[in-house]
Amino acid sequence: MTRAAIYARVSTARQAERDLSLPDQIAQCRRWCDRHGIEVVQVFTEPGASALDEDRPVFQEMIYTAKRPDHPFDLIIVHSLSRFSRDALHSELYIRELRKAGVELVSITQEIAHDPSGEMFRKLLNIFDEHQSRENAKHVHRAMLENARQGFWNGSRPPFGYRVEVKERRGNRDKKVLVIDESEARIVRLIFDLATSAHGRPMGVKAIATFLNERGILRRGRRFTTGGVHEILTSTTYHGTHYFNRTDSRRGRQRPPSEWVKLEVPAIVDEQTFTAVQAFLQSRAPKRVPPRIVNGPTLLAGIARCGHCGAALVKSTGKGNGGSYNYYYYYYCSRRMKEGSLACRGARMRMDKLDNIVLGEVAGRVLNPERLKAMLDAYVRTALEREDRNRERLRQLQQDHKETEAGIARLLELVEKGLFEAEDASLRERLVNLRFRRDELAQEIKDLQKRLVQAEPTLTPEKVGQIAVMLREKLYQGPPDLRQAYVRLILNEVSVDGREIRISGSKALLARAAAKGLGTTSPSVPSFVREWRTQEDLNL
After folding, report:
1. Domain limit, last residue, from 96, 116, 143
2. Half-sphere exposure in the Cβ direction for 478 (13 Å, CA)
3. Which candidate, 300, 414, 420, places its Cα nearest to that of 357?
4. In the beta sheet, which residues pair with residue 449?
């Protein structure tokens, strides 16, 4: 007896749940097989898969089974050719593969002869099916775009932190919108807080995922991954702007921004927090800042410079003087290391000696409470004397703020005109930098306006003493990555040549920190969390 497999398919999961199409297809195919004396040995059911997609899992399983050496069936029975495929090219390719394996495709509602005329008729049917499917998809997509323009959600799974709620009913259709799911939104806010140092020092993507998983906090029943955390931290949906139609689901490509539909949704975090997180993520991106600088043991990495040529001082190893067999770490001019002694005459210096000199000078000359008070008092007094210049500075800052806003608008206009791709890395970096600069200018304008209205904040001996003691502790104690981060917070550059070491930093930062006081937390610094080796024997 001829053996057959039945293949039944519907396009959407909703059809599979509510429709009777799948059971009806299978029942009709079974009755047809009974009338023709054909034994049904297997049934393949595909719920919720487009016939334009060849990567349907059940479909591929059926093709694989049909080509097995044991030849489990001779025919594949479908209700119509459109159930098998609506792509004319794919349909013909798979029919040829099946025939090589000795398996024929049969439609119970379309009688097709096995001759040249029948082959031509089948190909015409495939072309008509493909055209009909693409026309249907075009009209459905047009309706979804209009639905999004009117501010309604299009039925896909809502982003984490949101749920779908019916807002109104039009005819027999429910119009849905996104609303905040507080149980999930609390986790989203926690993720942004962890990235913005609200709970201590700012944490990176991996550290946040580890933090959540260690505490049993799940994302809809699953553990958090670095990709999931990064998706949340970079999605504009969370500050109130969702974009529909960004991706072509069939091709897996980004559509141009001119085709995006902006959808206003309830915000879980404010835009300023979101922009600050984007800038923070970019500042830690390995393509911009090598992890060896942020996460390495070198205390002055990134700020130590050669006093002769200005190149960075990098870590190198070498033997001690006097023929000692002990190896030491040195700071060495990177230019001389790469190009030789003719490129730069800078000499190397023992790492521990330079670190101790810098820390000693900073602790003794800068973080000494009496000297720090005198230095910051002079800074504040000078600031008060510059009130007229501050007013001019305020006007300049306001102008810069307007120009930054205009720059953002110009970039977005270029994207809308198709002159820039929305996912272009350089464009995204420029947008984030402009937005972060805009927020910095806004904060600086706010601070300057406040200083012009009110008196300069006073620096009491108690506040200066507290900040001095705290910073000295941070520089000398704690893990290497945190000490390194505080060094970069206080110092701008350490320039070393054969005669002197120049140490430069920001008085303004120290003045703001001392005037504000310690509060409940110390100043936040960015750093990686070095917890990637969990076993003690690997951390020696």
Report:
1. 143
2. 18
3. 300
4. none
